[in-house]
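Recall that a protein's primary structure is simply its ordered list of amino acids. Everything else, from secondary elements to tertiary packing, is in principle encoded there. The following example makes that idea concrete.
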Amino acid sequence: MELISEVLIKNGLVFAFLLVGGVMWLSYYVSHHLTAGRLHGSAVAIIAGLVLAYFGGLFTGGSKGMADIPVFAGLGIMGGAMLRDFAIVSTAYGVDLQEIRRSGIVGVLSLFLGIFLSFIVGAIVALMFGYTDAVSMTTLGAGAATYIVGPVTGSALGASSEIVALSVAAGLVKSVIVMIGTPFIAPYIGLNNPKAAMAYGGLMGTTSGVAGGLAATDKRLVPYGAMTATFYTGLGCLLGPSVMYFLIRAIVG
C-alpha cells in the first residue's frame, strides 16, 4: 500500500484524471439506470463533485478540500486556474462562425443586459445586508456577475478582504446554481440551438456554470455558450471598476 500510495502521489495529476474519469463513468451509469436519463450524467457528476468537495473539506479542515490529502493533491492542479482557463479557451475551437454571425445583435445585447442585471441585483442584495458604500456594493455586484469579476473589481477599488471573499462566494453560488439548474430549465426557455446558447451564455456570464450546465443539456451547445460567457467575464472586469462603480456611486454617494 505504501508503494502504491507513493506512486499515486508522484503522479498526482494522472491519478486526478483517472479519478475524475471514474466519477464521470459512475455518474453516467447512475443517470442511465436510476433516472432513465432524466437527470443527465454531467449533472450527476457535478452534484457528486460538490458532495466529495464538502466531505473533503470536513476531513481536511476546510482549507483545500480533497487536494489537502497527498494522494489527491493532483485534483488541486487539475481543478486550478491554469487548466480551467485552458479548457475555456479550447471551447472556442468548436464554434461554427456561421452560427455566430446568425446570432447578430442578440449576442451583444445579452452580454450587456446580463452584466447590468447581475450588478444591479448584487448591489441591491448588498444594500439589504447593510453594505451601503459604493465600493462594497460594486464589488458584491461584481461577484454576482462572476467569481472572477468580483475580486478583480474589489482589488481595483480597494475593497476589504472580507468584501472580496464575499464577492467570490456569491459568484461560486451563482456558478453552482447555473450548472445544476440549466438542464432543468432548458426545455422551457428553448435552449436547444447555438443562437439560444450564445444568448444564455451572455445573460448568465459564469463560464464554468454555463459550460457545465450546457454539457448536461447538449454538449454541442457548450462552445457557443462558453464563448459569450468568456466575453462576459472580460467585459465585466472592464465595466466593474469603471462604469458600474461611478453609476452606483452617483446613486448612493
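The chain has a mean pLDDT of 82. The chain is about 80% helix and 0% strand.
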